[in-house]
Amino acid sequence: MIRRRRLIKTVFSLLALMTVAGPVSASQFKALLFTKTAGWQHDSIPAGVSAVNALSKLHNFDVVHSNTADVFDESSLSQFDVVIFLLTTGDVLNEQQQDAFQKFIRQGKGYVGVHSAADTEHDWSWYRGLVGRTFVIHPEIQSAKVDLLEKGFPGTEYMPSRFLWTEEYYGYSAEHSDRLNYILSVDETTYNAEADWGEVKSSGMGVFHPLAWYQHYDGGRAFYTGLGHIAASYRDDMFKSHLYGGIYWAATGKGVVTE
What we know:
This protein is an alpha/beta fold. The protein has helices spanning about 1-20, 45-60, 75, 95-105, 125-130, 235-250, and strands at about 30-35, 60-65, 80-85, 110-115, 135, 140-150, 160-165, 170, 180-185, 195, 200, 210-215, 220-225. The chain has one domain: Class I glutamine amidotransferase (GATase) domain (Rossmann fold), CATH 3.40.50. The strands form 3 sheets. A 9-stranded mixed β-sheet has the order 2-1-3-4-13-12-9-6-7, with helices on both faces. Strands 5-8 form a two-stranded antiparallel ribbon. It has a two-stranded antiparallel sheet with strand order 10-11. A hairpin with a 2-residue loop joins β12 (about 210-215) and β13.
C-alpha cells in the first residue's frame, strides 16, 4: 500500500512538473507604445494606454509603454515589430532618434499613429510622408456621420457602412504620400467643420474629408486613425477593434482582404 501511494505521488509530481515546464504560447508580435508630448497633452492618454494594454492581453501580443524617446536607438527598437505613436505631439525625436526610427521602418517594421500623431514632427519631411497627412486645425468636438470606405481592412468587421461618431475632427493638409489607402471619412454636411484660430482658419476639407488610412512606406507599413481624442472612445468596442486592426496590420502585414 505504501509503495502504491508513493507511485501515485510520483505520478502527480511528474504531471505537475510537465504542466509548469510545458510549452508556453509565444506572443504574436511586440509593440512599443510611445506617448511623448512636446505640445498639447491629451487627458485621454491614460485611457489609451489602458486600452492598448487590454488589447495586448486579448490578442496575445507584447507591449512596452514609454513616454520618453530614450528607447529610440537601433538596438532597443530591434526588439519591436511596430511602434504606436499614441496621442503624441510636437517635436518628440532628436536627429539620432529620427535616424534610428527610419532604419526601423526600412527593415519592414510598422508604424501606427493615433489622432495627434498627425500633429507630431511637422518639420520632418520623412515623418510627414509616413503619417500621410498632417494636422492643420479642428473645430469644436461634435457628432457627425462617418463612412466606412474599405471593408477589407482588419478591424472594420464590426463597423457599419455609416455610423454616428463624436470626435474632435481634424482638418488635414494635402497628401504627403501618393500611396494612401483610405478606410474612413467624415461627412462635413453632418457637422460644422468651420474653425477660426486667428491666423489659421478653415471652412473644412470639402466633399472628401479622410479620417483613417494605411500605406506601405519606405519598406515598412503605416496606419493612421484620426479617432481617439475622447477618453471614453477607448472603452468603445468598435473603436478598439479599429485600433487593434491597425496595430495588427502594421506589425504583421496580414489581414487585408481584397475582393
